[in-house]
Amino acid sequence: MIDPALLGRRLHELRADRGLALAALARQAGVSVSMLSAIERGEKTPTIVVLSRIADGLGLSVSRLLADLETDRVIVRRAAEQDHVAEPGGWHRTVLTPVVPGVNFEWIRTTLPPGCDAGGFPAYAPGSHEFVAVEAGELCLGVGDAEYVLAAGDSVYFPADVGHSYANRGEHPCVYFVAALIMRPRVA
Description:
Elements: H1 4-17, H2 22-29, H3 33-40, H4 48-58, H5 62-65, E1 83-86, E2 92-95, E3 105-112, E4 117-121, E5 129-136, E6 138-143, E7 146-151, E8 155-159, E9 164-167, E10 174-181
Antiparallel strand pairs: 1-2, 2-3, 3-10, 4-9, 5-8, 5-10, 6-7, 6-9
Helix pairs in contact: 2-4
C-alpha cells in the first residue's frame, strides 16, 4: 500500500526539484490546484487517472513517480476513501478501486437519474478496454456509431479506443459499473 503522506512528500520534492510552482504543475497535468495541494499534503489519494496526469506533467511514468513508495502488496481502499463525484446533470460516480502503481485500471459505479445523458467520452489510446455491467434500470450505451440498450443484469465489453457515451432515457434511475483499463500515451 502507498502511504498518502509519503506520496505527497515525494510529489512535492519532484515538483520542487523541477522548479515548478503548484499552479504550473497543475496546469501541465490538467489537475486542479486544490486537488494537487491536497495530494501533496497527504489528505487525498488520487485515482490512477489523476496520478497518471501528474506523472505526465512531471515527465515521468507512473511507476517512476511511485518508485519505492509501496509498503504492502495488498491495497485496501475503504469506503470513506473512495472518490465520490457529483457531475453536472445530476449523475454521480464513485471510483471504487485503489490506486495501484503501474496499473491503469479503474472500477467505477455510476448512477444516472431518469432522463440523464452523461455525454460523450473521447476515444482512449489503443489497447484501452471497458467492461460495463448494469445493476438497475436501463442504460443506452453509444460505442462509435452504434447504440446498445442494456437492462439490469446485462453486460458488455468494447475496445475503448473509440468515442463512447452513456445515457438513461428511462423513467427509473440507472446504476451501472464500468471496469476500465485505460492506456494513455506518455508525453516527453
